[in-house]
Amino acid sequence: MTGKDPARSKRLTFELWSPRIHGATTPRDRVVVLVDAARAHLPDDDPMWAALDEQLGKYLKEKGFGS
Question: Would you call 45 helix, strand, or coil by DSSP?
Answer without folding.
Answer: coil
